[in-house]
Design a protein that fits this description.
alpha/beta, 12 helices
Length: 263
């Protein structure tokens, strides 16, 4: 069964495709759709099993998720796009760069990592997947993942943002979350892909991100032939949600420069 991703598609101009974090949906990109659609065609798909997209029957795999996105490009008439991904979306974006490089004119890697999971992290993902499947609810994600998604500044000062993130986590289907955790646990190291990138990259990290740190972001920048780093202050793992204006400004400048180069 081929999964057809549900996607929100707004604006016109250079395509900007944004892939969401785990365990959220394309709803996390609301501020980007609102803030960037005046200048770009902003496409925000729900990855398989999340939001409006069905899970399908494939074995858990980030490559499968990347192929879903590539099929979506073809279906909605995108030849090449600036591709952005946050956290899990970043892993899918890197898989896209490896499997479908002709579709990518530039890449934004936000709050994500180039390395594979440690043995400890992999075991934790698989344990969560087991609980998601056995309990049939996302309680384990609320307890163990949600506390690390936003930084302390957001937790203290942006109660509405934290509440919205909590709601998105609670809305995640448990089978999709389990599938995605198994897919991420199985992923390999992406540094060979990063070293081979032939397009510019913008690497973004929240200064308060403890899940994908500034050191890990710098390691990605050092590996990519043409990359710049943006550290967003007072933001944790969800920098576009916690500091949307700073994120949007950086992505707009990056995408506009790519559009000029293309022209």
């Amino acid at each position: 069964m081929t999964v057809q991703l549900y996607a929100r598609d707004v604006g016109a101009g250079t395509p900007l495709v944004l892939l969401h974090a785990f365990p959220l949906s394309s709803a996390m990109w609301l501020a980007q759709r609102e803030g960037l659609a005046a200048r770009f065609r902003v496409v925000t798909p729900d990855l398989r099993g999340f939001g409006g997209s069905v899970l399908g029957e494939a074995e858990p795999s980030l490559d499968e998720m990347a192929d879903d996105v590539a099929r979506m490009f073809k279906r909605i008439g995108i030849a090449r796009a600036v591709l952005g991904g946050l956290s899990m979306g970043g892993y899918v974006a890197m898989a896209m760069c490896r499997r479908h490089p002709d579709l990518v004119m530039g890449v934004v890697l936000a709050d994500t990592r180039g390395g594979a999971d440690s043995d400890e992290a992999r075991a934790a993902r698989l344990a969560q997947a087991e609980r998601l499947e056995s309990e049939g609810s996302v309680g384990v994600l609320v307890d163990e993942v949600l506390p690390h998604l936003v930084g302390p500044t957001t937790f203290r000062q942006r109660a509405l943002v934290y509440g919205r993130v909590r709601g998105l986590v609670q809305a995640t289907p448990a089978p999709a979350a389990a599938w995605a955790q198994r897919a991420m646990a199985a992923r390999g190291d992406a540094f060979e892909t990063l070293r081979g990138l032939k397009v510019p990259a913008l690497v973004v990290v929240g200064a308060e991100d403890t899940l994908s740190t500034e050191d890990e972001a710098r390691a990605m920048v050092e590996a990519i032939p043409n990359a710049e780093l943006l550290v967003i202050p007072r933001a944790g793992h969800l920098s576009p949600v916690e500091q949307p204006d700073l994120f949007n400004q950086a992505v707009a400048e990056f995408a506009a420069a790519l559009a000029r180069m293309k022209g």
